[in-house]
Amino acid sequence: MTVSYTLAEGLTVGVEHLWPLVALPVAVGLLAYLVRRGEGGPRSASNRSRRLLLASRVLIVCLLVLGAMGPYTVQTRETPGEPGVTLLTDESASMGVYPNTTDELVQDIEGEGVPVTRATVGSGPNSRIGDGVVANLQENGTVVVVSDGRVTDGRSLSRAAEDAGALNATVHSVRPQSPRTEHAVAITGPSTVSRGVQSQYTVSMQGVSVLEPVPVEVTIDGETVTEGELRPDGTLTVDHTFEEIGSHRVTATLSGDDEYARNDVFYKSVRVVEQPDVLYVSQGQYPLRNYLDSLYNVSTASSVPADLDDYSAVVMQDTPSGNIGNATALQDFVINGGGLVVAGGDNAYENGGYETSQVASMLPVRVGNATGGESNIVILVDVSGSAESGLSIQKAVALDVLDQLGDENQVGVVAFNHNAYRVSEMQALGQNRAETEDKIRRLSSGGATDIAVGLQGADELLGDREGTIILLSDGQDRLGPPAAVANQLGREGTRVISVGVGKRVGVATMRQIAGESGGSYFAADETERLRLLFGGSSRRYQGENLTIVTEDTFITSGVELTANPGQANNVQVKPGADYQVATADGKPAITSWRFGLGRVVSITAYDSGNTMGGLLDRPDSLVVTKSVNYAVGDPMRTQTGVIAVGDARVGSPTTLTYQGENRPEAADISFRQVGDGRYRGEFTPREAGYQTTLDTEYAANYPVEYGAFGPSEALDALIEATGGQTFSPSQGEQIAREARQKSTRVRTVRENWDWVALLSALLLFTGEVVARRVQVYRGHTSLESGLP
Predict the structure, then answer these.
(1) What is the pLDDT of residues 586-614, one digit of tens each?
(2) How are the residues of the chain apportioned to helix, strand and coil, as percentages rounded to the nearest 5?
(3) Can you give the residue ranges of the VWFA domain (predicted)?
(4) Where are the domains of the chain?
(5) Count H helices, E strands: the chain?
(6) CA distance linking residue 218 with residue 185, whole number of Å
(7) pLDDT in tens, 167-200
């Protein structure tokens, strides 16, 4: 049994064993008997001499007992080390807009007596900054990165932060100021569009030291379609309708002088195909039919025919199960890659007998109570050191999340830092809500952040049950690989809904964790949307219009909803489906999922007369268009030849997908078969511009290195995660001071003192024996014991 006591800050004393104390009174009693035996006889020592001998022997026994107890001390000490700075210089193209300050910085640091080791982590079009940081990390060391943090290859800076945290290494950055103007243009938009359908392209500009708006010209097939001006991080939108089948060119060009000319032009190759063939199935005349006709090549039928080979998707509206037609053909069509959109109405879903029909298995919703049933939910709260300053906010958000959850749910709570702690077991929330709230309020913070450990702890609490983990964190993870754990959870049927909480949230990390598991990311002020998922009958959602439940999906990205259809079919979302949009009263309005190789969308919001209550009017109509486009999928999937070319960049490998009976042959492209009649090849463009391979035109643009300038948020996150600082090129003295302070280590030193007690006992015994022999030698006593 170990016993210890803290005497002062940084000093603890203790003993390893207490059992030797049992021998102390026995030994003292025996010594007293032996010393006093024969007292009063003619040859006995004086009482004073006997008392001194007894005291001496008792002290020796006490020292022997103390030595047997194993005394020790634990002390915290500062030990100076050898300071040093590893200076990592990024000499890639994106740093070409900054003056070279490395030599001057090295002189300033070494002038303070701190040696500098230099290394280059980027050159030309390659910025492997993450790899460079990791390769130069040392335990308790200091790394200074002279870079903008724009990683174009290799390990990410977030992974580098994990390795730095494991070694207790600090990463600082030097942020130079650019006196030179540099801007880069880019175009985003669809690469494959349908003839006659309006498409939208966004032209953007990114740069540094851009003081005035930069003129931009956008051409399509060589003809100017718009001219305007762009500011940094600004955009210009171009709407265009292509009327001719084939390849078309959309080009954006910036004017004005800057450091690099190669990134002032961006090329976008657009393939225009025939409008997808869509079958509209309904027994009524509804506005949706006319709306679809403006986007697709629509055929109409009152029921599903046996042959669906000519169609990319089937849109079925307000059709009872008895009138669907050939449901077997429809199921085979979807399983083999076709799309299905089922729009509701007075004769659909619960009103059309869908729950017992063959189509029920294909739908992402289940006919029945729209308020939802019981769900298994674990609230996972980050209580690590990175969340410490905002723990009160973490608790407030956790309590807010709890308030969104319906009484029917089974809810547990897990807190985590570098370990996971069960706060509340899985139990019905209704009768245990107050107890769960109290346990959340009692949470305290501290320790490193390991979201992966937290996710594993939440999964253990769920046990064999599938469920949902609601992660509340700032996403500043320094230790574990949370995305990999989230991916595994998703494969096992557990999704993660991440909620970003804190002053500085790693949104990218939190989104990735949610996405890997098939879940969603919410900001801290968006938790009310959890009522749409888990509110049940006791926590019903109430809004004014349609509400986006899952943001940034194919269906919901860029969508603005203002409509409020008066009705909705009574359904609930199936596990594994994507809940896209809800009605004003919290019922599912649009839900989607993959079924076999195909895609299925349920649109259950409607209005009297099946007008869909404003869903076909702008801006809401975009969500209908994207829902059908999602079901249609790849319009090229039934064609032969090159069906897709990835975004091509000079010097970077690009993927090309070919569909046909035989393996294609092309110069500098090696193909491998990835499916039945489908081949994938890889090639590397060497020049920017419009180029052709296998009779297909594609656009190759400037290297990624030339696309972004200025300090990156990822570098700022790395510095913050490792406790580093951001310096200017003139602060070499401060960098040296930080390195010297970092090299001074605080160590915990344990020392055992049993040898001191045993040596003292031996010295005392030896001294006593010598003293008594001296007494006899000098004639001060005639007793053999040497006692007077």
Answers:
(1) 889 999 999 998 999 999 999 987 788 88
(2) 30, 30, 35
(3) 376-537
(4) 3-77+751-778, 84-177+710-729, 182-273, 277-369+542-632, 376-535, 642-706
(5) 17, 43
(6) 11
(7) 878 899 998 888 889 999 999 988 888 888 888 8
